[in-house]
Structure formats: C-alpha cells, structure tokens
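Whether sequence alone determines local backbone shape is best considered at the level of individual chains. We regard such an encoding as a compact summary of how the chain folds. The sequence in question and its structure tokens are set out directly beneath this paragraph.
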Amino acid sequence: MSAATERTPVDVAVGVLIDEAGRFLLTSRPVGKVYAGYWEFPGGKLEAGESVEAALRRELIEELGIHIGAVHPWKIELMDYEHARVRLHFCKVFDWTGEFEMREQQAMAWQTLPVQVQPVLPGTLPVLRWFAEERGYVGATHET
C-alpha cells in the first residue's frame, strides 16, 4: 500500500451527547482497539454510502443501546494518528431514548470542564477547547 493510500482519511461520525445539565458523555475505548482505555466521544466509521447522521444513529445503537433524536452537525476535524488519518464529523445530540448499555464493555462518564477521566484521546481535545470557548471557560480542559 502506498503512503498516499494509507493517509486517505477515514470518515468517522462522532456523537457529542449533552444532557440537560450541560454535561457531555465520554466513553472509554474498548480492549482490543487502538488506544484502548482512552476516553473519547462515542461514534464510529461511516460505511460505504452512509451519511454522517445514519452512521451516528447506527453506531450509538451498536455501542450504547440508545436511539438518538435530532443530530446537529457541529464541526469537522482532521486528525493524524500513527495508524490512520481520521476525518471526525462532530455532531451535537441533545435528546435520546433508551437505557445506556455498554455493549463493547467500555466505560462511560458524564463530564464537565475540566474533564476528570484520563487519558483523553487526542481527537477529543479539540472538542474540549470548543466547549471552553462556547462556555467562557478558562483553564485546563483536562488532566494530563
């Protein structure tokens, strides 16, 4: 495989679930995946022909067992990891139905700034900065 092919971005739908108190949901990456144990916003890769919204709805059912309401596209960030280049499509979600089930044996945590769980996946850090800007928060967004 050529270097150019290896660096073609993988599109990923990411759900930024925000509850009524303004907290946001982070989940840990499951054992067996790259960056296992790191905390991130839930979501996953788009399948062929799938929209960001459709992928996000599917992934959150598969990973968390919830059905989401309206999807609000927010920001797109390109991240270069050692294993892949990833185009993250962040979408805010304010309503959902169902009970949270950690279907991949991951952990979940409702967080505010500064985030208390660690380590935080590099692709999550821009979102924490955006939250800080939106909310007028000054200081470290996470523990290192």
Remarks:
- Confidence is low (pLDDT under 50) at residues 1-5.
- Strands lie at 10-17, 24-28, 39-40, 43-45, 67-68, 71-80, 85-93, 96-97, 108-111.
- The chain has three helices and nine strands.
- The first helix runs from residue 3 to 6.
